[in-house]
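Hypothesis: this fold can be encoded by more than one sequence.
Test: take the C-alpha cells below, design a sequence, compare later.
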C-alpha cells in the first residue's frame, strides 16, 4: 500500500498537503483563539461588574456601621438623659413634698378666682383673720 501511495504522491504533492494541513491547523487555531478571547472578555466584564458590586457593598457596610455607631452613641446619651431626668424628678417630688409641709390650703374664700396673685390672696386672708379674730 505504501508503494501505491508513494507512486501516487510526489514530493510536490506532499508539500502541498503539508501546506493544506498547516493552513487548516492555523485556521482552527485562530478560531479557538477567537473563542477563548471572547470568553475572556466576557469573564473580564463579569469580574469588573462583581468588583464594582463588592465595592458598593463595602461602602454600604461602612455607612451602615457608621449609622450603627451614631445610633449607639445617641442611645447611650438618651439613657444618660433618662437617668438624669429620673433623678431630677425624684428630687423635685421630694422637694415638693417637703415644701407642702409648711403650706396651708384654704377654701371658701370670698371673691376666689383662679390664678390670683399670692399677694392678693394673702391680703384677703389677713383682712378676714383681723375681722373675725380681732387680731
Amino acid at each position: 500500500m505504501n508503494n501505491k501511495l508513494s507512486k501516487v504522491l510526489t514530493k510536490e504533492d506532499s508539500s502541498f498537503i503539508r501546506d493544506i494541513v498547516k493552513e487548516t491547523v492555523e485556521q482552527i487555531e485562530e478560531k479557538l483563539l477567537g473563542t477563548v478571547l471572547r470568553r475572556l472578555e466576557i469573564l473580564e466584564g463579569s469580574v469588573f461588574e462583581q468588583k464594582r458590586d463588592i465595592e458598593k457593598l463595602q461602602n454600604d457596610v461602612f455607612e451602615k456601621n457608621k449609622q450603627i455607631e451614631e445610633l449607639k452613641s445617641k442611645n447611650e446619651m438618651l439613657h444618660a438623659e433618662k437617668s438624669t431626668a429620673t433623678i431630677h424628678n425624684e428630687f423635685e417630688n421630694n422637694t415638693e413634698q417637703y415644701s407642702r409641709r409648711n403650706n396651708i390650703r384654704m377654701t371658701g374664700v370670698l371673691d376666689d378666682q383662679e390664678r390670683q396673685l399670692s399677694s392678693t390672696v394673702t391680703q384677703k386672708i389677713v383682712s378676714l383673720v383681723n375681722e373675725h379674730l380681732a387680731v
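The two ends are 157 Å apart (CA to CA). The chain is about 85% helix and 0% strand.
Hypothesis status: open.
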